[in-house]
Protein backbone atom coordinates (compact mmCIF):
# COMPACT_ATOMS: atom_id res chain seq x y z
CA UNK A 1 0.00 0.00 0.00
CA UNK A 2 1.20 3.55 -0.77
CA UNK A 3 2.53 5.31 2.28
CA UNK A 4 0.77 8.47 3.46
CA UNK A 5 2.15 11.85 2.39
CA UNK A 6 1.82 14.90 4.61
CA UNK A 7 1.64 18.40 3.11
CA UNK A 8 1.85 21.43 5.39
CA UNK A 9 0.87 24.94 4.27
CA UNK A 10 1.75 27.93 6.46
CA UNK A 11 0.15 31.33 6.89
CA UNK A 12 1.99 32.95 3.98
CA UNK A 13 0.58 30.35 1.59
CA UNK A 14 -2.95 31.22 2.81
CA UNK A 15 -2.67 34.99 3.13
CA UNK A 16 -5.43 35.88 0.62
CA UNK A 17 -7.89 34.41 -1.88
CA UNK A 18 -5.27 34.10 -4.63
CA UNK A 19 -3.04 32.16 -2.27
CA UNK A 20 -5.85 29.69 -1.51
CA UNK A 21 -6.42 29.27 -5.25
CA UNK A 22 -2.69 28.61 -5.68
CA UNK A 23 -2.86 25.96 -2.95
CA UNK A 24 -5.65 24.26 -4.89
CA UNK A 25 -3.55 24.40 -8.06
CA UNK A 26 -0.64 22.72 -6.24
CA UNK A 27 -2.92 19.95 -4.98
CA UNK A 28 -4.89 19.43 -8.18
CA UNK A 29 -2.47 16.99 -9.82
CA UNK A 30 -0.97 15.66 -6.60
CA UNK A 31 -3.97 14.92 -4.41
CA UNK A 32 -5.11 11.33 -3.87
CA UNK A 33 -5.95 9.04 -0.98
CA UNK A 34 -3.28 8.49 1.69
CA UNK A 35 -2.81 12.23 1.82
CA UNK A 36 -3.00 14.57 4.84
CA UNK A 37 -2.97 18.36 4.50
CA UNK A 38 -2.05 20.46 7.54
CA UNK A 39 -2.82 24.19 7.46
CA UNK A 40 -1.85 27.13 9.64
CA UNK A 41 -3.92 30.23 10.32
CA UNK A 42 -4.30 32.62 7.39
CA UNK A 43 -1.70 35.37 6.99
CA UNK A 44 -1.06 37.18 10.27
CA UNK A 45 -4.22 35.91 12.00
CA UNK A 46 -2.30 34.52 15.00
CA UNK A 47 -0.67 37.92 15.56
CA UNK A 48 -4.08 39.61 15.39
CA UNK A 49 -5.53 37.19 17.94
CA UNK A 50 -2.55 37.84 20.22
CA UNK A 51 -3.21 41.58 19.94
CA UNK A 52 -6.85 41.00 20.92
CA UNK A 53 -5.68 39.01 23.95
CA UNK A 54 -3.22 41.76 24.94
CA UNK A 55 -5.95 44.39 24.77
CA UNK A 56 -8.32 42.26 26.84
CA UNK A 57 -5.61 41.68 29.45
CA UNK A 58 -5.15 45.47 29.68
CA UNK A 59 -8.95 46.02 29.90
CA UNK A 60 -8.95 47.82 26.55
CA UNK A 61 -11.66 47.58 23.91
CA UNK A 62 -10.85 44.93 21.28
CA UNK A 63 -14.08 45.02 19.26
CA UNK A 64 -12.49 46.93 16.36
CA UNK A 65 -9.62 44.42 16.21
CA UNK A 66 -12.09 41.54 16.17
CA UNK A 67 -14.19 43.18 13.45
CA UNK A 68 -11.10 43.66 11.27
CA UNK A 69 -10.14 40.01 11.69
CA UNK A 70 -13.67 38.86 10.86
CA UNK A 71 -13.78 41.08 7.76
CA UNK A 72 -10.42 39.71 6.64
CA UNK A 73 -11.77 36.16 6.57
CA UNK A 74 -15.13 37.09 5.08
CA UNK A 75 -13.46 39.14 2.32
CA UNK A 76 -11.39 36.09 1.34
CA UNK A 77 -14.57 33.99 1.29
CA UNK A 78 -16.37 36.51 -0.92
CA UNK A 79 -13.62 36.15 -3.52
CA UNK A 80 -13.69 32.35 -3.36
CA UNK A 81 -17.37 31.46 -2.95
CA UNK A 82 -20.74 32.54 -4.38
CA UNK A 83 -23.28 34.37 -2.22
CA UNK A 84 -25.21 32.03 0.02
CA UNK A 85 -22.44 29.44 0.28
CA UNK A 86 -22.41 27.40 3.49
CA UNK A 87 -19.00 28.84 4.47
CA UNK A 88 -20.48 32.22 5.45
CA UNK A 89 -22.65 31.02 8.37
CA UNK A 90 -19.77 28.77 9.46
CA UNK A 91 -17.42 31.76 9.70
CA UNK A 92 -20.09 33.73 11.57
CA UNK A 93 -20.50 30.84 14.01
CA UNK A 94 -16.77 30.62 14.70
CA UNK A 95 -16.71 34.30 15.63
CA UNK A 96 -19.73 33.86 17.90
CA UNK A 97 -17.85 31.07 19.69
CA UNK A 98 -14.68 33.19 19.81
CA UNK A 99 -16.54 36.11 21.42
CA UNK A 100 -18.16 33.73 23.89
CA UNK A 101 -14.64 32.71 25.01
CA UNK A 102 -13.46 36.32 25.08
CA UNK A 103 -16.32 37.23 27.42
CA UNK A 104 -14.71 35.05 30.11
CA UNK A 105 -12.33 36.67 32.63
CA UNK A 106 -8.59 36.75 31.95
CA UNK A 107 -5.64 37.36 34.28
CA UNK A 108 -1.89 36.82 34.31
CA UNK A 109 -2.48 33.65 36.33
CA UNK A 110 -4.72 31.96 33.72
CA UNK A 111 -3.25 33.68 30.64
CA UNK A 112 -1.60 30.60 29.09
CA UNK A 113 -4.73 28.44 29.29
CA UNK A 114 -6.85 31.36 28.06
CA UNK A 115 -4.39 31.91 25.20
CA UNK A 116 -4.80 28.33 24.01
CA UNK A 117 -8.60 28.55 24.07
CA UNK A 118 -8.51 31.65 21.85
CA UNK A 119 -5.54 31.32 19.55
CA UNK A 120 -6.58 28.07 17.84
CA UNK A 121 -9.54 29.78 16.16
CA UNK A 122 -7.14 30.93 13.46
CA UNK A 123 -6.48 27.36 12.38
CA UNK A 124 -10.13 26.35 12.67
CA UNK A 125 -11.17 29.23 10.40
CA UNK A 126 -8.49 28.62 7.77
CA UNK A 127 -9.03 24.85 7.64
CA UNK A 128 -12.80 25.29 7.07
CA UNK A 129 -12.26 27.84 4.31
CA UNK A 130 -9.62 25.75 2.53
CA UNK A 131 -11.63 22.52 2.83
CA UNK A 132 -14.78 24.13 1.45
CA UNK A 133 -12.85 25.72 -1.41
CA UNK A 134 -11.15 22.46 -2.39
CA UNK A 135 -14.52 20.72 -2.40
CA UNK A 136 -15.93 23.51 -4.59
CA UNK A 137 -13.12 22.70 -7.05
CA UNK A 138 -14.23 19.05 -7.21
CA UNK A 139 -11.37 17.94 -4.95
CA UNK A 140 -13.21 15.73 -2.47
CA UNK A 141 -11.61 16.07 0.93
CA UNK A 142 -12.52 15.34 4.56
CA UNK A 143 -12.14 17.82 7.46
CA UNK A 144 -10.60 16.56 10.69
CA UNK A 145 -10.37 18.34 14.06
CA UNK A 146 -6.70 18.03 15.13
CA UNK A 147 -7.73 18.26 18.78
CA UNK A 148 -9.23 14.77 18.43
CA UNK A 149 -5.84 13.46 17.27
CA UNK A 150 -3.04 15.38 18.98
CA UNK A 151 -3.08 14.41 22.65
CA UNK A 152 -0.95 16.52 24.99
CA UNK A 153 -0.28 17.33 28.61
CA UNK A 154 -1.68 20.51 30.18
CA UNK A 155 1.42 22.67 29.74
CA UNK A 156 -0.55 25.39 27.95
CA UNK A 157 1.16 27.27 25.08
CA UNK A 158 4.04 24.73 25.06
CA UNK A 159 2.18 21.44 25.35
CA UNK A 160 4.13 18.19 25.28
CA UNK A 161 2.88 15.33 23.15
CA UNK A 162 1.46 12.12 24.57
CA UNK A 163 2.98 10.08 21.75
CA UNK A 164 1.36 6.76 22.62
CA UNK A 165 -2.17 8.17 22.83
CA UNK A 166 -1.65 10.36 19.75
CA UNK A 167 -0.51 7.36 17.72
CA UNK A 168 -3.57 5.38 18.86
CA UNK A 169 -5.82 8.28 17.87
CA UNK A 170 -4.22 8.57 14.44
CA UNK A 171 -4.33 4.84 13.77
CA UNK A 172 -7.97 4.46 14.89
CA UNK A 173 -9.49 7.75 13.66
CA UNK A 174 -7.30 9.19 10.92
CA UNK A 175 -5.88 6.17 9.13
CA UNK A 176 -9.25 4.65 8.06
CA UNK A 177 -10.31 8.02 6.62
CA UNK A 178 -7.06 8.74 4.84
CA UNK A 179 -7.05 5.34 3.15
CA UNK A 180 -10.30 6.39 1.42
CA UNK A 181 -10.01 10.16 0.98
CA UNK A 182 -7.51 12.98 1.46
CA UNK A 183 -7.89 14.60 4.89
CA UNK A 184 -7.35 18.24 5.87
CA UNK A 185 -6.59 19.23 9.46
CA UNK A 186 -5.10 22.03 11.54
CA UNK A 187 -1.56 22.57 12.69
CA UNK A 188 -0.45 23.99 16.04
CA UNK A 189 -3.41 22.81 18.16
CA UNK A 190 -4.15 19.78 20.33
CA UNK A 191 -6.05 18.91 23.51
CA UNK A 192 -5.16 17.64 26.97
CA UNK A 193 -6.70 14.59 28.68
CA UNK A 194 -9.62 16.73 29.89
CA UNK A 195 -10.35 17.91 26.34
CA UNK A 196 -9.09 21.46 26.93
CA UNK A 197 -7.44 23.11 23.90
CA UNK A 198 -3.64 23.30 23.94
CA UNK A 199 -1.03 24.63 21.53
CA UNK A 200 2.43 23.39 20.60
CA UNK A 201 4.33 26.70 20.56
CA UNK A 202 4.37 29.43 17.92
CA UNK A 203 4.87 28.18 14.35
CA UNK A 204 3.98 24.71 15.65
CA UNK A 205 2.18 23.56 12.48
CA UNK A 206 5.43 22.07 11.14
CA UNK A 207 5.61 20.00 14.31
CA UNK A 208 2.02 18.84 13.81
CA UNK A 209 2.94 17.55 10.36
CA UNK A 210 5.86 15.59 11.86
CA UNK A 211 3.67 14.19 14.66
CA UNK A 212 1.07 12.94 12.19
CA UNK A 213 3.79 11.52 9.92
CA UNK A 214 5.40 9.55 12.75
CA UNK A 215 2.00 8.36 14.02
CA UNK A 216 0.91 7.17 10.56
CA UNK A 217 4.33 5.76 9.48
CA UNK A 218 4.18 8.19 6.58
CA UNK A 219 6.39 8.15 3.52
CA UNK A 220 7.30 11.87 3.54
CA UNK A 221 6.46 15.34 4.81
CA UNK A 222 6.49 18.42 2.56
CA UNK A 223 6.46 21.92 4.01
CA UNK A 224 5.41 24.61 1.50
CA UNK A 225 7.11 27.98 2.05
CA UNK A 226 7.58 31.32 0.29
CA UNK A 227 11.30 30.51 -0.19
CA UNK A 228 12.90 28.03 -2.64
CA UNK A 229 13.82 25.65 0.19
CA UNK A 230 16.24 25.81 3.11
CA UNK A 231 18.69 28.65 2.53
CA UNK A 232 21.84 29.53 4.43
CA UNK A 233 20.23 32.85 5.49
CA UNK A 234 16.86 34.60 5.42
CA UNK A 235 16.59 36.17 1.93
CA UNK A 236 14.36 38.93 3.33
CA UNK A 237 17.30 40.13 5.45
CA UNK A 238 20.47 38.95 3.71
CA UNK A 239 21.40 39.04 0.03
CA UNK A 240 23.37 36.41 -1.89
CA UNK A 241 21.89 33.34 -0.17
CA UNK A 242 22.68 29.71 -1.00
CA UNK A 243 20.05 26.96 -1.36
CA UNK A 244 20.75 23.60 0.26
CA UNK A 245 19.71 20.83 -2.15
CA UNK A 246 20.05 18.33 0.70
CA UNK A 247 20.58 18.52 4.45
CA UNK A 248 21.34 15.91 7.07
CA UNK A 249 18.79 15.59 9.89
CA UNK A 250 21.41 16.60 12.46
CA UNK A 251 22.49 19.72 10.59
CA UNK A 252 18.87 20.77 10.07
CA UNK A 253 18.16 20.20 13.77
CA UNK A 254 21.16 22.35 14.70
CA UNK A 255 19.88 25.17 12.49
CA UNK A 256 16.43 25.05 14.09
CA UNK A 257 17.94 24.92 17.60
CA UNK A 258 19.66 28.25 16.97
CA UNK A 259 16.44 29.77 15.62
CA UNK A 260 16.25 29.19 11.85
CA UNK A 261 12.60 30.03 11.18
CA UNK A 262 12.11 27.94 8.05
CA UNK A 263 11.37 24.83 10.17
CA UNK A 264 9.95 24.53 13.70
CA UNK A 265 12.64 23.28 16.15
CA UNK A 266 10.73 20.17 17.23
CA UNK A 267 9.99 18.99 13.69
CA UNK A 268 13.19 17.11 12.90
CA UNK A 269 13.43 14.64 15.81
CA UNK A 270 10.30 12.50 15.18
CA UNK A 271 11.06 12.38 11.45
CA UNK A 272 14.71 11.45 11.98
CA UNK A 273 13.77 8.73 14.48
CA UNK A 274 11.34 7.23 11.95
CA UNK A 275 13.57 7.83 8.91
CA UNK A 276 10.89 9.94 7.20
CA UNK A 277 12.31 12.48 4.70
CA UNK A 278 11.29 16.12 4.96
CA UNK A 279 10.98 18.27 1.84
CA UNK A 280 10.92 22.07 1.98
CA UNK A 281 9.51 23.52 -1.24
CA UNK A 282 8.25 26.81 -2.64
CA UNK A 283 4.52 27.30 -3.13
CA UNK A 284 5.48 30.04 -5.62
CA UNK A 285 7.45 27.57 -7.77
CA UNK A 286 6.01 24.18 -6.80
CA UNK A 287 7.77 22.20 -9.54
CA UNK A 288 11.24 23.19 -8.29
CA UNK A 289 12.98 20.48 -6.22
CA UNK A 290 13.51 22.52 -3.02
CA UNK A 291 15.48 20.93 -0.17
CA UNK A 292 15.42 17.32 0.97
CA UNK A 293 16.27 16.63 4.64
CA UNK A 294 17.23 13.03 5.32
CA UNK A 295 20.19 10.89 6.41
CA UNK A 296 23.41 12.05 4.78
CA UNK A 297 26.97 10.96 5.35
CA UNK A 298 28.43 14.43 4.81
CA UNK A 299 27.53 17.75 6.42
CA UNK A 300 27.37 20.77 4.11
CA UNK A 301 29.63 23.34 5.81
CA UNK A 302 28.38 26.43 3.96
CA UNK A 303 28.33 29.36 6.46
CA UNK A 304 24.75 29.67 7.75
CA UNK A 305 23.36 32.87 9.26
CA UNK A 306 20.45 32.85 11.73
CA UNK A 307 19.03 36.10 13.12
CA UNK A 308 16.59 36.27 16.03
CA UNK A 309 14.99 39.63 16.79
CA UNK A 310 13.20 40.95 19.90
CA UNK A 311 15.78 39.45 22.23
CA UNK A 312 16.48 40.35 25.87
CA UNK A 313 19.93 40.09 27.47
CA UNK A 314 19.65 39.47 31.22
CA UNK A 315 22.78 39.62 33.40
CA UNK A 316 22.54 38.20 36.92
CA UNK A 317 25.34 38.98 39.35
CA UNK A 318 25.77 37.23 42.70
CA UNK A 319 25.67 39.69 45.60
CA UNK A 320 27.25 37.73 48.47
CA UNK A 321 30.89 37.91 47.27
CA UNK A 322 30.88 34.25 46.20
CA UNK A 323 31.53 32.91 42.70
CA UNK A 324 29.02 31.45 40.25
CA UNK A 325 28.38 27.81 41.09
CA UNK A 326 26.22 25.09 39.64
CA UNK A 327 23.49 25.86 42.20
CA UNK A 328 23.14 29.40 40.83
CA UNK A 329 22.71 28.17 37.26
CA UNK A 330 20.22 25.55 38.48
CA UNK A 331 18.25 28.25 40.33
CA UNK A 332 18.05 30.45 37.24
CA UNK A 333 17.04 27.57 34.96
CA UNK A 334 14.38 26.42 37.41
CA UNK A 335 12.69 29.83 37.23
CA UNK A 336 13.05 29.93 33.44
CA UNK A 337 11.41 26.52 33.17
CA UNK A 338 8.48 27.61 35.35
CA UNK A 339 7.92 30.56 33.01
CA UNK A 340 8.47 28.45 29.87
CA UNK A 341 11.30 30.72 28.77
CA UNK A 342 13.92 29.16 26.51
CA UNK A 343 17.56 30.25 26.74
CA UNK A 344 18.90 31.16 23.30
CA UNK A 345 22.41 31.90 24.60
CA UNK A 346 24.17 31.36 27.94
CA UNK A 347 27.45 32.78 29.17
CA UNK A 348 28.97 32.65 32.66
CA UNK A 349 31.84 34.50 34.28
CA UNK A 350 33.25 34.35 37.80
CA UNK A 351 30.35 36.33 39.28
CA UNK A 352 27.80 36.70 36.49
CA UNK A 353 25.32 34.60 34.51
CA UNK A 354 24.21 36.15 31.22
CA UNK A 355 21.24 34.73 29.33
CA UNK A 356 19.50 35.73 26.11
CA UNK A 357 15.76 35.02 25.89
CA UNK A 358 12.85 35.86 23.58
CA UNK A 359 10.69 38.80 24.54
CA UNK A 360 7.36 37.51 25.89
CA UNK A 361 4.46 39.39 27.39
CA UNK A 362 5.05 40.10 31.13
CA UNK A 363 7.42 37.11 31.47
CA UNK A 364 10.52 39.26 32.13
CA UNK A 365 8.98 41.03 35.11
CA UNK A 366 7.97 37.67 36.59
CA UNK A 367 11.51 36.34 36.14
CA UNK A 368 13.05 39.42 37.78
CA UNK A 369 10.66 39.27 40.72
CA UNK A 370 11.70 35.67 41.43
CA UNK A 371 15.45 36.24 41.17
CA UNK A 372 16.11 39.77 42.40
CA UNK A 373 16.45 38.73 46.04
CA UNK A 374 19.52 36.61 45.21
CA UNK A 375 21.02 38.47 42.26
CA UNK A 376 21.76 41.98 41.14
CA UNK A 377 20.00 42.07 37.75
CA UNK A 378 20.50 44.23 34.68
CA UNK A 379 18.84 43.75 31.32
CA UNK A 380 18.73 45.17 27.81
CA UNK A 381 15.80 44.61 25.47
CA UNK A 382 15.17 45.23 21.77
CA UNK A 383 18.29 43.29 20.81
CA UNK A 384 19.20 40.84 18.03
CA UNK A 385 20.94 37.49 18.39
CA UNK A 386 23.12 36.65 15.41
CA UNK A 387 24.31 33.05 15.03
CA UNK A 388 26.73 31.96 12.31
CA UNK A 389 27.24 28.21 11.84
CA UNK A 390 30.44 27.02 10.12
CA UNK A 391 31.69 30.61 10.09
CA UNK A 392 34.46 32.01 7.96
CA UNK A 393 36.17 34.55 10.21
CA UNK A 394 36.56 37.23 7.54
CA UNK A 395 32.78 36.99 7.06
CA UNK A 396 31.80 38.07 10.60
CA UNK A 397 32.88 41.78 10.48
CA UNK A 398 30.62 42.32 7.46
CA UNK A 399 27.62 41.40 9.61
CA UNK A 400 28.44 43.92 12.35
CA UNK A 401 28.68 47.20 10.47
CA UNK A 402 26.49 49.78 12.22
CA UNK A 403 25.96 47.55 15.27
CA UNK A 404 27.22 47.54 18.85
CA UNK A 405 28.23 44.13 20.21
CA UNK A 406 27.00 43.45 23.76
CA UNK A 407 28.00 39.80 24.08
CA UNK A 408 29.90 37.30 21.95
CA UNK A 409 30.97 33.68 22.20
CA UNK A 410 32.43 31.06 19.90
CA UNK A 411 32.50 27.28 19.69
CA UNK A 412 34.17 25.07 17.12
CA UNK A 413 31.31 25.34 14.63
CA UNK A 414 29.34 28.41 15.75
CA UNK A 415 29.67 32.09 16.64
CA UNK A 416 26.90 33.86 18.56
CA UNK A 417 26.72 37.65 18.88
CA UNK A 418 24.21 39.81 20.71
CA UNK A 419 23.97 43.11 18.87
CA UNK A 420 21.98 46.33 18.70
CA UNK A 421 21.91 49.09 16.15
CA UNK A 422 24.10 52.06 16.96
Describe this structure in words.
It catalyses: L-aspartate + ATP = 4-phospho-L-aspartate + ADP. Belongs to the aspartokinase family. InterPro entries: AceGlu_kinase-like_sf, ACT-like_dom_sf, Asp/Glu/Uridylate_kinase, Asp_kinase, AsparK_Bifunc_asparK/hSer_DH. Pfam families: AA_kinase (PF00696). There is one protein chain. This protein has 422 residues and is an alpha/beta fold. The protein folds into two domains: 5-225, 3-Layer(aba) Sandwich (Carbamate kinase), CATH 3.40.1160; 304-421, VC0802-like (2-Layer Sandwich), CATH 3.30.2130. The protein contains twelve helices and 16 strands. The protein has helices spanning 17-28, 45-57, 63-80, 87-102, 111-119, 121-136, 163-178, 205-216, 249-257, 268-274, 326-338, 363-371, and strands at 5-9, 35-39, 142-143, 183-186, 189-191, 197-199, 220-225, 246-248, 278-282, 291-294, 304-318, 343-348, 352-358, 375-389, 403-410, 414-421. An eight-stranded mixed beta sheet has the order 3-4-2-1-7-9-10-8, sandwiched between helices. Strands 12-13-11-14-16-15 form a six-stranded antiparallel beta sheet. A two-stranded antiparallel ribbon has the order 5-6. Strand 9 (278-282) and strand 10 (291-294) form a beta hairpin. The radius of gyration is 22 Å and the shape is globular.
Amino acid sequence: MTKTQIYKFGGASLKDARAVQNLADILRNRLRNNFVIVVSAMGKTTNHLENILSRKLENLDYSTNSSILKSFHLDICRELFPDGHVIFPKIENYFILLHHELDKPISKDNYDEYYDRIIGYGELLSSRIVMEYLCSQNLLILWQDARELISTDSDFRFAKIDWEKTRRNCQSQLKPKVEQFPVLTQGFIGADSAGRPTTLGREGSDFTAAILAASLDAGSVTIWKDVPGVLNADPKIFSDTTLFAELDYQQAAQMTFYGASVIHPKTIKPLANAGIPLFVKSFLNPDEPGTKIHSLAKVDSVPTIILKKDQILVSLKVTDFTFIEEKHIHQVYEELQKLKLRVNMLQTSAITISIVIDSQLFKLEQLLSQLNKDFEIRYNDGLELLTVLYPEMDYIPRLLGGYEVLLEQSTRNAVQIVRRAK
